Amino acid sequence: MSNSDDLRRERQALREEIESAEASLFGGTSGQQARLRDRSPSAPDLDMVLDIPVRVTLEVGGTNMPIRDLLQLQQGAIVELERHAGEPLDVLVNGALIARGEVVVVEDKLGIRLTEVVSASERLQSLR
């Protein structure tokens, strides 16, 4: 089964649950219930947003430095980052932290193996 089939089944189950709750709350005839349903906004269709491109960024680390020091950097200079060797990289989508992982090499190309997906509550905190 594909994820889209699972999502469709979940949406249908939610619709049925809402219809059942509306019937018990509002009573009334099926015609009245249908009019109430028509007035309420429908559940968002995620298919509309699945093809929107987003920017995925892997953050190795960072540091703060005065502009004076930045302007004095030359080829071969080393900039010390605020992250230790071996620490996982941050995976950001449109600037929001969504996961952490480690660098891997696949057929002479760099990639990342996700080691941790950030919880929904942690993602919300990173947006604030």
Automatic annotation (TrEMBL):
Signal peptide: none annotated. Keywords: Bacterial flagellum, Cell membrane, Cell projection, Chemotaxis, Cilium, Flagellar rotation, Flagellum, Membrane. Its main location: membrane. The keyword Membrane applies. It is a peripheral membrane protein. It is found in: Cell membrane; Bacterial flagellum basal body. NCBIfam families: fliN. FliN is one of three proteins (FliG, FliN, FliM) that form the rotor-mounted switch complex (C ring), located at the base of the basal body. This complex interacts with the CheY and CheZ chemotaxis proteins, in addition to contacting components of the motor that determine the direction of flagellar rotation. This is Flagellar motor switch protein FliN. It comes from Spongiibacter thalassae. The lineage of its organism: Bacteria, Pseudomonadati, Pseudomonadota, Gammaproteobacteria, Cellvibrionales. The gene is fliN.
